[in-house]
């Protein structure tokens, strides 16, 4: 459920205060930490880690390599930001402009989904897609920017963040994130057509913008082409060629001659992008200038990169005119002499992205990238992080359905802020009614004091009763012990009787006092037998009983009866009682046999 009045009251309630923008490119990983303060937005950290991946590595090993580098970058840099805003490479994304009929608001997504099924050359089950809707201009049609990316690309990228135990808050496209950063920098003059050329390692992004309109294109010709040309010409390793490309030696004539054909090819693609931009206007003459998208976002993001490097030719709400300003950015733009080359061929002043015009850039900390590289490499990372701090031109998010929707996340925070406001109101209201509550509480205190007084009166009686109970319990324990002792004596006698051989009889039986307490006491037997063998049989029988242990004969001697000549053996045997469990078992057996 949407609550626009709460959105207006609470303003930026759905935005974070400190975020991390992450741009994982083909050549390096860029991380930018932005913080919103009372004075504006700060660029707190800018970290860079090169990606030196062996192309022959299997995909899973490449993914592990990227994770190791990313983990080290975030960990060694001491970045404790949980919310990470990601930028996907434009060449991994399919973009389309679609026209839809004016329909009810709750039917828009269903209508665009139908268009997605027609425009995306893959099953929708294989991709994650999003759209940005523009206001209608004339007639009964509306335009929308449709973007799609393979699920595997999103899952692999999000998997890296999850392994870091961080939250992948949003996933944008680097070319749109760069546009956000350029707009924030204030470089664009509203009435001039501006070209921002982002030259990466493997791809170049061109952003054409004027007033509220933007048009974008991506093509696979970039900085690596310069490196490969130097490597082939001078028989260098890839690392050596990269080092030479960034050195002052590039100004030498023999090196210029090697790089010039690549510069020509790059310029040709830029010129082709501008040409496509103008050609598309022929399909768009009925569009009103300066159309605004819903939510105040500027309209007119034209098609950019595609899954199969497709160049879109459908119309987009861009506006014509001569390019009057060019800005270079990206790692490939560091080539010495490239600015001058573009100025001469395009007959226009070439400048650089300057994030410091509108961002408060803090001094670099240990582990941060060279400050000179911030404007060159960190445009997309900064632009992506801006999505967590402010509303931007075109808000694409491939994770919004995975993260339960961008609006739902924002409204969840709005509800939290609203709860805080309501809590404050409750506290104020509570202040006014507190006097009545005090009277009520006083009555509770009086009642409690009365109960305490009653308890004091009955306390001595309760103590006396408790002492009587304890005395009775002691007597009961004594009688119980006596009864158990007598019962045990009987069990001992019955057990001995059961093991007496026929030619043996007892003359005395004694036990230690511990027996009465069921302790491990000793038992002494004295008796007579008709032979030594029967004495030995008795000892063996007693050893086999679970009630006794340590059974041993103490003495045995031969005697004669006075009236006869029969031989009689007189003996004495000692033994100890086994544990209580054995005694209980024997007692149970006796009870069962008697029953």
Write a brief caption for the model:
By secondary structure, the chain is of the alpha/beta class.
Beta strand count: 18
Label the overall shape: elongated
At CATH's second level, what is the architecture of the largest domain? Answer: 2-Layer Sandwich
- The CATH topology of the largest domain is what? Nucleotidyltransferase, domain 5
**Count of discrete domains:** 2
CATH class category label of the largest domain: Alpha Beta
**How many strands, which pairing sense, and closed or not: the largest β-sheet?**
6 strands, mixed
Strands of the biggest beta sheet: in what spatial order? Answer: 8-4-1-2-3-14
Secondary structure class reads: alpha/beta
Total helical elements: 14
- End-to-end separation: 78 Å
Tell me about this structure.
There is one protein chain. It contains 14 helices and 18 strands. It is of the alpha/beta class. The strands form 4 sheets. Strands 8-4-1-2-3-14 form a 6-stranded mixed sheet, sandwiched between helices.
Keywords:
595 residues, alpha/beta, Nucleotidyltransferase, domain 5, Gyrase A, domain 2, 2 domains, five-stranded mixed beta sheet, 14 helices, elongated, disordered N terminus
Blueprint of the fold:
Blueprint lengths: L3 H7 L7 E7 L3 E10 L2 E11 L8 H18 L6 E6 L4 E9 L6 H12 L7 E7 L7 E10 H13 L3 E7 H12 L7 E7 L4 E7 L2 E7 L3 H12 L3 H8 L7 H29 L41 E7 L8 H9 L3 E3 L7 E2 L12 H4 L1 H8 L19 H94 L4 E8 L10 E8 L2 H12 L4 E13 L6 E11 L2 H15 L1
Parallel strand pairs: 1-4, 3-14, 4-8, 9-12, 12-13
Antiparallel strand pairs: 1-2, 2-3, 5-7, 6-7, 9-10, 10-11, 15-16, 16-18, 17-18
Helix pairs in contact: 5-11, 6-7, 6-8, 12-14
